[in-house]
Structures are given as C-alpha cells and as structure tokens.
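User: Predict the complex with PRP.
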Amino acid sequence: MSKLHVIDHPMIQHKLTIMRDKETGSKDFRQLLEEISLLMGYEITRDIPLEDVEIETPICKMTAKKVSGRKLAIVPILRAGMGMVEGLHTLVPVAKVGHIGLYRNETTHEPVVYYCKLPEDIQKRLVIVTDPMLATGGSACDAVKMLKDRGCKNIRLMCLVAAPEGIAKVQKEHPDVDIYVAAVDDHLNADAYIVPGLGDAGDRIFGTK
Ligand code: PRP
Ligand code: URA
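Assistant: Here is the predicted structure with PRP placed in the model:
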C-alpha cells in the first residue's frame, strides 16, 4: 500500500491555520501555499539519490555530493495545483513542469479532463503531482492514471489538506503512489467539500469568488 506522509512541522501547521481562516485574502493565501509547498518539498525529496563528484574548492580537492539519476517533473492539477508549483520550483529550479486540467462536475463530483501537456521525457522522471485538496480523490486518481498511461512509473502526490475518503481511494487505485499531506481532516460534506478544510482552493488562490 502507498505510504501516507503527514508533514506536520510546526511552521506548516501555523501557515495552514492562517490559510484555513476565511478572513485570509487571496494574496496571503497564495503566498502561504507557496511557502508551505517549499517546506513540503524538503520532505518529498528527502530520499532522492546522490552521487559522488570530484570538485576543487578554493582550498583543496574534495569528493562531494550531487543529485544523481532521476530528474524531477512537477505536474499541477489545474487550477489549484498551480499554487504549489513556485515553491517546489524554488527548491528544484531545473524541474520540468507538465499540466493536467481537471475540474469536478458540480453535481456528480466526477472529474472532467480538459487539458494535458507534459514534458516529452516525463516517463524517465520522478513526477510530483500537486493539488492542495484531496477530497473524494477522483481528480488525483485520474491524473495519476493519465501519467501511468504515458509510461510514468515514479509518481508522488503532494496535497495540502486531505479527507480520509480521498486517501483511501488513492491507496486502493494507486498503491504504488506515496501521498504527502500537511493535514488529514475529518470528513467530506454532502457537496464533497473537505470539513473543516479551507473552502474552494482554486477560488481562494485566484480570487474568483
Ligand atoms: C478541486 C481541487 C481538486 C479537486 C479535489 O478542483 O483543486 O483538483 O477539486 O476534489 P476531488 O478529490 O473530489 O476530485 P476543482 O474541481 O474545484 O477545480 P479548480 O481547481 O479548477 O477550481
Ligand atoms: N475542492 C476544493 O477546492 N475544496 C474542497 O474542500 C474539496 C474540493
């Protein structure tokens, strides 16, 4: 089964609390999401392999470490996943970025695909799928399936807030995909919104409501 990593560092919890507050406006919400994404990025990249390289400092020659092999791709689920890209890109500036456009049908809550553009060599990369909200898990599962259909084998899912229902669905459909979250909330309401959650992440990032 895929592993669930809850990254609940005090600074992340503090920033997430401000994001949850309905009085927090778009500018601060975006900024905090970017900051949390960078902090979560440390954990999600914690085990990437290093290799020895020979360099020369101004003082002497030495054997030092550099990231080896697997390169990264960041794949946000549009729209809200975009809010997590900058933070990860600050950490890994050479990461390539793909985009998967999905929205939830408001009545059925089923995801609908409207866009997919990925780096050509994505199947050779470690792919981090980003989306702040893991609610029913439908969007994340569909995005991961689209990546697997294109040959991706190393996929991690990075979300901010998750519902137990969404975690269970990803673990059942994609047991090879580890999930990284800042918080696991209580449940979904009748509209499939996370409770207590933070509302509609896309609207809060882009100020559309
Ligand atoms: C939100 C969110 C996720 C999805 C999560 O997107 O950003 O992509 O819902 O829900 P799920 O786990 O039940 O699939 P939304 O469909 O509102 O689209 P948007 O990002 O364009 O606002
Ligand atoms: N999408 C959101 O933006 N928020 C939720 O709580 C659930 C899905």
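The chain is about 30% helix and 30% strand.
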